[in-house]
Every structure is written in C-alpha cells, then in structure tokens.
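step: validate -> pass
step: tokenize input -> pass
step: predict -> running
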Amino acid sequence: MSTSEVPQGRIRQIFAAYRMTKRTDKFLPLILLSVFLITIGISGALVIFLVPGLWLQIIFSVSVIMLGIIAVLFVFGKRAETAAYAQLEGQPGAAVAIVQNMRKWTITSAVAADRNQNLVHRAVSRAGVVLIAEGGAGIGALLSGERKRTLRFIGEAPLTEIVIGNTTTTVPIKSLQKKLKKLPKKLSKYEAAGLRKKLEAVGGSSIPVPKGPMPKSTNIRVPRQ
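step: predict -> pass
step: emit ->
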C-alpha cells in the first residue's frame, strides 16, 4: 500500500463513521460547527490579547484553526462512539465484536447457547479466562454450566464471569471494554498463550458478529486496542 493510500483510506473511514453517526445523531453537524466556532473564537481572542504584533498573530492563527479541528475530531469521536454502541445494543454477538478488536485478547463465540438465544462467549488474555454472557431469562443457568465445564480445563488460571445488561448486577455493552481492561493481569504472556492453546481443543461454535465501525474514544475507525 502506498503512503498516499493511507490518508485516503482514513478519510473514507471518517466519512463512513460520520454518515453512520448522523443517522442517530441528527444535531451532529450543528454541534461540530458550534465546537469549531467556539474553539477558534476563544483561542483567537486569546491570541489577539496575548500575542504582540500582527505577523505573530497571523502565524498563531494557523494554530488556532488546527486547535479548532482537533476539538471537532475529539467531540466527533465521542459521539461516534456513542452511536456505534447504540447500534450494537441488543445484538447477539455484540460482545464478540468488541473483544475481537482488543489487542492481546482472543475470544471464542457461543461456547454455550440455548433455544432462547442466550449465549456465553469465552475470552482469554493475561487476565485469565472471562466468560461473557448475553441474553435474558435463563442466562444464569447457562453461564453456571459453562463455568463448571471451563474450570475442568484451566487449572489455577483466573476465571471471571460477566453478564451483559443494563441492571446493577450486569455490565452495559458500552462499558465492556473498560471492564475488561481493568481486570488484573495475573498471568504472564507465556501462561496466557499456553491457556489459549489448551482451550483451543475445547472449541466452540460460531455466530454472526455485528458489522460496522467499532467504538474507541480517541478514534472512529475499527480499532485493535
């Protein structure tokens, strides 16, 4: 890939994310314009009052415009993140889509499932094994069964259970990535690699993963974190 293709691909991703976000965020253009104008207005006023000399003010005006663009991209990234999570909310496999885009994490989708479309996915990292459950009624029994099965294979490795939902005892899909990152890394990278190999033999079924741009607070393209 040539160096010229890289920025072109990034620009296409930005426009794709903008169109996706605008579908659910009707005030997005007005908000971004307001952020740009307010930022350059405040910054420009500071330059006029604090920077002596016309030529220096002209030079600093370029920095003012760049600061406005950075502010717009920051706000846009946050709102694109919110829109992306809103589209994932309630979709089977949403947790898989998020974990697949996290560095140093692997996930096997639907290692357990039932007729009510309850699903349990198995993720592995230096934090150990994490069973992530998505569904409704009956998810507790399904998760408990998979926990017992998993414990037979992982020895002393840490095992964490997470249920996706919007109650006080569950984790919202938008908070899953943050929750996983906060888990203590109790395994070395070699122990984690060995654990992955051991669990590969256990296997698991596959389900369709939701498509579309994934959220990241500082980026609007599909990330690997």
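step: describe -> DSSP finds seven helices and four strands in the chain.
step: cleanup -> pass
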